[in-house]
Specification:
alpha/beta; 7-stranded mixed sheet; 16 strands; about 20% strand
């Protein structure tokens, strides 16, 4: 298999079309970082690209009506439109009132810009980290299916690829089987940030555990447990199905399933921290079980109920840190919190854009890792067919089938830290 680096991709002439990026309102900060990585790689290869971004605007009339404007030519380009539907800091005026943009407003502006391309772009790709309508992904009764319908609308408008991150339920891609849909997981970026901000973290079975906050997050947390070689436990959310509070059945208890967390650091990963109550309840439960430090991660740390409860939990020693990505809006107040650590995903998105622009499968980036490490990962997963847990029997199988596994695991951990 041929190996590629980010820089070598720009030496390939067989790109789909000239690459251009549109950052919608509220996504300019992330878009600028992505463009910076792409331009840096291009310059290393002798390419004289000065700018990849295309300026757009979606002005509003006083009545609230809007329109989309593209300020330079996009004819024949491979166009990447970056949108953050969760950025409520964006405002517009209507009838003298200032309104915060909702996900619906951001989605409508995206449709306006796609309309404004007038079919002139060679290919249109939408990078929507926080998937519009992603939390309304299935129908239980007489309910709308916002995400599925939005994907079908985008497909009908000529969008070729959708790129999202940590979708609430990636099976929603079944709504558009003939359109490219990639659900990316920033797991490497999370571990890299964790090792950077917690240098004294001991990653072994005696000092660290991964805990899934519920059954829906099992696969996400299993990935971290497998790659860090530690034990995993989980909580089951017992709900009161006789009552509905704020549109949901309230959680009455968190039931823990797993080995003891006493004296161990704990890492908990979820897709979103909204009100944060569930994550804090879990942290208090873990402290009751004598866990040491507790670190939480959410791809979208939006804190809809404010930061005060987390401030108190941090001051009381209940939670020691929260990690969140820059894939959606973070308030200035959140960024100033001592307990919050940002996970920068801009380089990851840039990698993907570079690969897609040259029709290279994203999996070829594995070629950047030493071959023995890739082999070890494969053997590690195969051994799980014999023994699901990380126990003496499991490590006995590794010693038998891949004696060099400790060396390879050390190399992988050094790569994460680099």
């Amino acid at each position: 298999m041929q190996k590629y680096t980010a820089e070598s991709v720009f030496n390939l002439e067989a790109n789909v079309a000239p690459l251009r990026i549109i950052s919608m309102n509220g996504a300019q900060e992330l878009g600028a970082k992505i463009e910076g990585h792409l331009l840096n790689w291009a310059h290393k290869c002798g390419k004289e690209e000065e700018k990849l971004s295309i300026e757009v605007d979606c002005p509003r009339f006083s009545s609230g009506d809007g329109k989309g404007l593209i300020k330079s030519s996009i004819r024949g380009t491979d166009l990447y439109i970056l949108v953050d539907v969760g950025n409520y800091s964006c405002k517009y005026n209507m009838y003298g009132f200032e309104n915060a943009m909702s996900p619906d407003d951001h989605y409508q502006d995206l449709r306006r810009i796609i309309q404004a391309t007038s079919g002139k772009a060679h290919r249109i790709n939408v990078i929507m980290p926080n998937l519009y309508g992603g939390r309304q992904h299935r129908r239980n009764y007489r309910e709308s299916l916002d995400c599925a319908v939005a994907l079908q609308e985008l497909r009908a408008m000529g969008v070729d690829n959708i790129v999202t991150f940590d979708a609430h339920d990636p099976r929603v891609c079944n709504a558009v089987p003939m359109m490219g849909f990639d659900n990316m997981m920033p797991s490497y970026q999370v571990m890299k940030a964790m090792f950077k901000h917690i240098p004294d973290l001991q990653v072994d079975r005696d000092h660290l555990m991964v805990i899934s906050p519920d059954e829906g997050a099992l696969n996400r947390n299993m990935y971290y447990a497998v790659n860090m070689g530690v034990e995993m436990g989980m909580f089951y959310k017992r709900r009161d199905y006789s009552r509905v509070v704020n549109g949901r059945n309230p959680i009455v208890a968190h039931e823990y399933l797993g080995t003891s967390v006493e004296g161990k650091d704990v890492f908990v990963a979820d897709d979103i921290i909204a009100s944060g109550e569930s994550m804090l309840d879990l942290a208090y439960e873990l402290k009751k079980r004598k866990a040491n430090r507790i670190f939480a991660y959410a791809t979208y740390a939006i804190f809809t109920a404010g930061l005060e409860k987390f401030d108190k939990a941090y001051a009381d020693g209940i939670i020691d840190g929260v990690f969140g990505t820059n894939l959606t809006y973070r308030t200035p107040e959140l960024l100033q919190r001592e307990w919050f650590h940002e996970v920068d995903c801009s380089k990851y998105v840039a990698y993907y854009i570079a690969a897609l622009n040259h029709n290279i499968s994203i999996s070829v980036w594995l070629g950047a890792f030493p071959e023995e490490c890739i082999e070890y990962v494969v053997v590690h997963e195969l051994v799980h067919l014999l023994e699901k847990g990380h126990n003496a029997r499991f490590y006995g199988y590794l010693d038998r089938y891949y004696p060099e596994w400790k060396t390879c695991e050390g190399k992988l951990k050094n790569i994460w830290k680099s």
